[in-house]
Design a protein that fits this description.
By secondary structure, the protein is mainly alpha-helical. It folds into 2 domains: about 200 residues, HUPs (Rossmann fold), CATH 3.40.50.620; about 80 residues, Tyrosyl-Transfer RNA Synthetase, CATH 1.10.240.10. It has 14 helices and 5 strands. The strands form 2 sheets. A 3-stranded parallel β-sheet has the order 1-2-3. Strand 4, helix 9 and strand 5 form a beta-alpha-beta unit. It is globular. It binds tryptophanyl-5'AMP. Tryptophanyl-5'AMP binds next to strand 1, helix 1 and helix 8.
Length: about 325
């Protein structure tokens, strides 16, 4: 069946190929995508220019990119329903980013908490790219006339910036951009480290606190066994007093597709030992099924899908870019 854009609202999301995606990124963002493609016109992007804001080995970038395409597919993204493409295949993203850099204020970017966190300790040698990267993200979103952006909590502020830049540009030059909205899960928007429930589970950590989607199964078991818990022994969702168990309950709930209420009831009168043993099973079942899907996809297939996605994404991108350039006086 030929590809058709049949839904009115547009969804855009992306992940950086700077390493393997962990279950935090899966729960916070990627796990929402397959369902969305039934209702919306979806563009899912491997945002490789974002990955170079911190030093990358060039050979790794290509490897992570292909892995990420296969990860999207294994999570249910269907290239017959969605547009799956690589950011650097469309020069319009970086072109629009430059134009929006001239709309963004220093004050907008100085507020970004992720920059403050990531640049900590780097002082004057931190890359300018890391500072302006939220503007590139705004360009990704606005270029495709996006309505909805499914992301984890850490990216919400960046989508707010995209909204502000869209409004500012529209006011100054004439209406060209849609105003996007982030969709952030009520529960699961910020999965925490298994070793420290006050720290986000993150790609860069990559130790005992973080489980990758492509993690070795035995390693994953060990990480769940070693996951920290709280004092007491009740299995109860209570973020303030039981941050570690609440995080584990959230992971359990998303990976087993069962509600937290239901899980809490099941463990009434039982202790952390029983709960963690079963969570180990939930994580292992989930990872095994995911990796089985992943291993069915070849690199060649992934490359072909990117090529087809590039052609489809190019059309809307060029339409927006041409309008924007005309408005600012560049032919
Ligand atoms: P990135 O690659 O760091 O993360 C990918 C997505 O995963 C979410 N996420 C999490 N969610 C819950 N718990 C966690 N521990 C966790 N870790 C990561 C992130 O919020 C994100 O949604 N700048 C973006 C990529 C990007 C983008 C875009 C996203 C570039 N352009 C346009 C949406 C639209 C980033 O670095 O995400």
């Amino acid at each position: 069946m030929p590809f058709q854009l049949k839904h009115e609202q547009i969804v855009f999301s992306g992940i950086k190929p700077s390493g393997r995606l962990n279950i935090g990124g899966y729960i916070g963002s990627l796990s929402q995508w397959a369902e969305m493609q039934e209702k919306y016109t979806c563009l899912f992007c491997v945002v490789d220019y974002h990955a170079i804001t911190v030093k990358q080995k060039p050979s790794d970038l290509e490897k992570w990119t292909l892995e990420l395409v296969k990860t999207y597919l294994a999570a249910g993204v269907n290239p017959k329903k969605s547009i799956l493409f690589r950011q650097s295949d469309l020069s319009a993203h970086t072109e629009l980013a430059w134009i929006l850099n001239c709309t963004a204020h220093m004050a907008d970017l100085k507020k970004m908490t992720q920059f403050k966190e990531k640049s900590l300790g780097q002082k004057e040698t931190v890359s300018v790219g890391l500072f302006t990267y939220p503007v590139l993200m705004a360009a990704d979103i606005l270029l495709h006339q996006t309505d909805i952006v499914p992301v984890g909590e850490d990216q919400k502020q960046h989508v707010e910036l995209a909204r502000d830049l869209a409004k500012r540009f529209n006011n100054e030059y004439g209406r060209v951009f849609e105003i996007p909205e982030s969709v952030v899960r009520k529960n699961g928007a910020r999965i925490m480290s298994l070793q420290d429930p006050f720290k986000k589970m993150s790609k860069s950590e990559n130790g005992a606190g973080c489980i990758d989607l492509l993690e070795d199964i035995e390693e994953a078991r060990k990480k769940i066994r070693r996951a920290v818990t709280d004092s007491g022994n009740q299995i109860k969702y209570d973020k303030k007093n039981k941050p570690a168990i609440s995080n584990l309950l959230t992971i359990y709930s998303h990976l087993s597709r069962r509600s937290i209420d239901e899980i809490e009831k099941e463990y009434e009168g039982k202790g952390y030992g029983d709960f963690k043993k079963d969570l180990e099973g939930v994580v292992v079942d989930f990872l095994s099924a995911f990796q089985k899907n992943y291993n069915k996809i070849s690199d060649q297939e992934a490359l072909k899908i990117l090529e087809a996605g590039r052609e489809r994404a190019e059309e809307m991108a060029q339409k927006t870019l041409v309008k924007v350039k005309k408005l600012i006086g560049i032919k």
